[in-house]
Amino acid sequence: MQMTRRSWLEGVAGAAALSAMGSGSGRGQEGNAAGPVRYVRFAKDGREQSGMIEGETVRALRGGPFAGSRPVGPSHPLREVELLAPCTPTKILAMAGNYRSHLENTPPPKNPEFFLKPPSALLAPEGVIVIPPGTADVHYEGELVIVIGKRASRVPAADALAYVLGYTCGNDVSARDWQANDRQWWRAKGCDTFAPLGPWIVAGIDASDLLLTTRLNGEIRQQARTSELIYGVADIVSFASAHVTLLPGDLIFTGTPGTTSPMKSGDTVEVEIEGIGVLRNRVA
Fold first, then answer.
1. Does the pLDDT of residue 17 top 80, yes or no?
2. 110 inside domain
């Protein structure tokens, strides 16, 4: 069933209201007594801004969510703004094989295994996934995404959550034929529009046991809890920071569960994570 932009915005606004009350597994990893906070990037009257969701409105933030931010200007109804990818990373890391249900009979990795997706692959909520010429097997991969909040280099796992701003939903779009046949995954994982992200970043929740659901045209295709991750958030951030310096806004896709299948023109894919929201994109 096709969903209009208005009905989708009403749905994500409702998810925001539910998230504001907290989820059964949610508690702020940094002791946010006020409850979860939702950060967005949005466009209004041709101007791109960072903002914070307050109920069903968006308040612009000066400085963004990473340092010295403060509300500025009037609030805007959520339905009247265009949501963008919620941050602008310097790099996007993505986990390979981090659910046993996705690995099937392949042994789990001895340490977190990453590949890179370019920031140019980012796609906003409601943006259109474009299948490029030359591939006939492009799959969805619904994932929890970590958003780094401050500079992290050689961070111990015990301290790693302090470097996390929050979490969002991601779709690690993958051209399986290129992934299988190319020496590197640069185009299989990194084409334009191959990193849908959003609808916002949620700070102040515990992401260790959230329900992740991926739907294709309204039908559930993937469903798992983040407690099933082979490597959890702290270990992922610690291991990554031991090798590359993570900067505010950098992203880490944490891996996809179960099996995936091809998307085709006209399809709609949704990634929903408990306590965060719904990322929705159409396929061209």
1. no
2. yes
